[in-house]
TrEMBL record:
Domain ABC transporter: 25-254
InterPro entries: AAA+_ATPase, ABC_transporter-like_ATP-bd, ABC_transporter-like_CS, ABC_transpr_TagH-like, Bact_Polysacc_Export_ATP-bd, P-loop_NTPase, Wzt_C
PANTHER family: TEICHOIC ACIDS EXPORT ATP-BINDING PROTEIN TAGH
Descriptive protein name: ABC transporter
Similarity annotation: Belongs to the ABC transporter superfamily.
Species of the source: Flavobacterium frigidimaris
Record's keyword annotation contains NAD: no
Sections of the chain in a coiled coil: none
Length: 401
């Protein structure tokens, strides 16, 4: 890795919850600065620490993934990094040209055209007119705004603003690149193009990347900072560990019934072959058999239904569906009760938290009669931090020529 381009040392920032007090405190701090009086660093009435004692370094060729729930302090820290606000304590040192995309439309003059905003923004970063003209066509092409470049930015859609903002920040090849969640506004094709550009820039740039999408974070980050209530909960190179801690906050055992025709009642669901629990969530090892027990009570005489059982990841994205039962399956309703096991041998889901959704249909008409989400949650553990949904078993063989 190259030289340190971002150095954050003990940075803290406090705000007042009440606007009136915030203005009074601000004027008091300005006056204290003028007369050279040392400011009181302790919290005053209605004040709170938005960020507290944050320290990290990012070198050229590194990407820091910044994560945390809403209100954790990410936006405040980004504004300090970008120079929009000053810290109350600590220091931020950044070297080279800085490109930032931290807020939708930030830095754009809405009454100016896209062309004029390109020159303005690139000049603010530190590029001269000749350097901007050299990159101008690449910026417009990357943003896919050839037909709209001379239209006022106030008439741009949110997606167009994101495309133009990222194109300026990335195509000018800054030394430091700061990217907030705004990429989530773009369409899939543009997001993929953005990541290709980040891959191209990364060897020569220090990147701070903020996102609530853990797959995106794991895609580009080689170190991670997890904020909680303005403080560092985890900082390190084990990206998977930081993501695990982030996900652990959202462990949920509550199920939700979305459809119930009154035909059946799900009496019990249990994951078997479990040796340990995390916050009452069963834990199984990668490669173990997944065995789920279902107990269903039928409230009226009913033929065997069709079961569709789906696995979702922690972001509630479906990652797999089990084969459905058939009329020839070894399932029998006895005394209005059906007990059965679902067996999936040697599970190869990558480490993480997963949940099960159950939908029940009539066999002949395929009409839904029952649906319950998050009927069961479980965690898969493995030594490797792998964030694609599957860690597939494989063998490697030497071939002699």
């Amino acid at each position: 890795m190259g030289e340190v381009l971002i150095k954050v040392d003990g940075v803290s920032k406090k705000f007042a919850k009440d606007l009136k007090k915030s203005l009074i405190y601000g004027l008091s701090d300005v006056f204290s600065g003028i007369i050279g009086k040392k400011q009181d660093k302790s919290l005053r009435g209605d004040e709170f620490w938005a960020v507290k004692d944050i320290s990290f370094e990012v070198r050229r060729g590194e990407c820091l993934g910044l994560i945390g729930h809403n209100g954790a302090g990410k936006s405040t820290l980004l504004k300090i990094l970008n120079g929009l606000i000053s810290p109350d304590e600590g220091s931020v040192t950044m070297y080279g040209k800085i490109g930032a995309l931290i807020e939708l439309g930030a830095g754009f003059n809405p009454i100016l055209t896209g062309r004029e905003n390109i020159y303005n923004n690139a000049a603010i970063i530190g590029f001269n007119k000749q350097e901007i003209e050299t990159k101008f066509e690449d910026i417009v092409a990357f943003a896919e705004l050839e037909d709209f470049i001379d239209m006022p930015v106030q008439n741009y859609s949110s997606g167009m603003k994101v495309r133009l903002g990222f194109a300026i920040a990335a195509q000018m090849e800054p030394d430091v690149l700061i990217i907030d969640e705004v990429l989530a506004v773009g369409d899939l094709g543009f997001i993929l193009k953005c990541f290709k550009q980040i891959d191209k820039l990364l060897p020569h740039t220090a990147v701070v990347f903020v996102s609530h999408s853990m797959p995106m974070i794991s895609r580009v980050a080689n170190q991670i900072l997890l904020l909680a209530r303005g403080e560092t909960e985890y900082l390190g190179n084990e990206v998977g560990k930081g993501i695990d801690i982030y996900y652990n906050r959202f462990v949920d055992n509550e199920s939700t019934v979305f459809l119930d025709d009154g035909i059946l009642e799900l009496k019990k669901v249990q994951l078997l072959n479990v040796k340990e629990y995390y916050k009452e969530v069963p834990v199984i090892k990668w490669g173990d058999d997944l065995i789920i027990f279902f107990k269903i009570i039928f409230k009226q005489s009913e033929e065997l239904p069709l079961f569709r059982i789906i696995i979702n990841d922690k972001e509630q994205k479906p990652v797999g569906i089990f084969q459905t039962n058939t009329l020839n399956s070894d399932l029998t309703i006895e005394d209005n009760q059906l007990n059965f096991y679902l067996l999936h041998e040697k599970i190869q889901l990558s480490k993480g938290f997963y949940s099960i959704d159950l939908s029940v249909f009539k066999f002949n008409s395929n009409n839904p009669i029952y649906r319950i989400n998050n009927v069961l949650s479980f965690q898969v553990v493995h030594d490797e931090d792998v964030w694609p949904p599957f860690l597939l078993n494989a063998s490697y063989f030497n071939v002699k020529s």
